């Protein structure tokens, strides 16, 4: 018999339709880790809602969590659709997948606003430096000088998703690489327990249009230049008791729900709770030409968008009954009286 998790589900029950993306596309690896993270955390698929914009990346919610509802929205407009849905049902756990084009080109306006609003959702940017779906034009994250067969050389400076997230006060900011399955999975788990916006910028190579070894979004470059900040692992609340802490070598960040992020020190002694340090570290990664990965910044203090507006998980708006929605006769009489 297949193994089941704490809510009695097999891993297969977290899969979606078979992928139609190219074999080897980084986006497929990320979908696999979303499936694994949801299984490991014993999420109930019907309690999750998936969002995306338009692009190969934005197609991928079809390939995971087939039992969850989802909304494959308009190009660059996913944040407002997701915000509306979360206002309607504050009880759902939101997993959003976007692309670099979707979020930093056509969607940059919406992206900036979702960052500063702290909407409680996992927001994954599957970042390949190109518009994969429309045949490989440069996106705003492509590095200056990148030369592609049908595009020539890119003359512009790139947008850095992480810097945008940091300057806009996002409360969970992480970067990873689709080829590092373990780190991607653990970051997704931590993001799922963050009560606010969790930005995951995941370098996800487009093997068809942008995978030459010297390109900043290729498997070759990312493997060669990845420099993890820490050994990252996530411990759900129920497993707390079994965690071993080695003093002086680990750092623990406690999440709202009682679960923990355990950061084991590698070369650097990095503090992910200091926003200024985070910006300096990203600047330093440009100078050293490395791909810094891991949890770059976290702040568990600010209210989420739904808390700011007093939206309750116990009584989501879409589940209110007649007794709450229908004004009392006296209230209607009072309004009518004002009009005459
Ligand atoms: C309003 C609008 N403009 C343009 C397009 C064409 N279009 C579809 S996907 C896409 C870019 C997708 O790039 P990205 O978000 O990086 O996703 P990828 O395919 O690389 O995963 C564009 C420009 C569209 N669908 N709608
Ligand atoms: S075109 Fe690129 S981004 Fe799109 S599925 Fe193929 S490899 Fe992935
Ligand atoms: Mg892209």
Mean pLDDT: 95
How many domains make up the 3D coordinates? 1
Query: Mind telling me the C-alpha Rg?
Result: 21 Å
Q: Going across the major beta sheet, what is the strand order?
A: 2-1-3-4-10-9-15-11
Name the helix and strand elements from N-terminus to C-terminus, one letter apiece: HEHEHEHHEEEEEHEHEHEEEEHEHHH
Stretches with pLDDT under 50, minimum 5 residues = none
**Percent range for β-strand residues:** 15-25%
Compute the separation of the termini in Å. Answer: 72 Å
Let me know the number of strands.
15
* Ligands: thiamine diphosphate, iron/sulfur cluster, magnesium ion
Helix/strand class: alpha/beta
Summarize the amount of helix as a percent range. 25-40%
Helix count, per DSSP? 12
CATH architecture: 3-Layer(aba) Sandwich
Predict the CATH topology.
Answer: Rossmann fold
Describe the structure.
- The chain has 340 residues and is of the alpha/beta class.
- It has one domain (11-232, 267-308): Rossmann fold (3-Layer(aba) Sandwich).
- The chain has helices at residues 26-40, 56-59, 78-88, 100-104, 108-117, 161-167, 181-192, 219-225, 275-288, 305-308, 322-325, 329-339, and strands at 48-52, 69-72, 93-99, 121-127, 130-131, 137-138, 147-148, 152-153, 172-177, 197-203, 226-228, 230-235, 250-254, 260-265, 291-298.
- The relative contact order is 0.12.
- The mean pLDDT is 95.
- It binds thiamine diphosphate, iron/sulfur cluster (SF4) and magnesium ion.
- The site of thiamine diphosphate has 19 residues, from α2, α4 and β5.
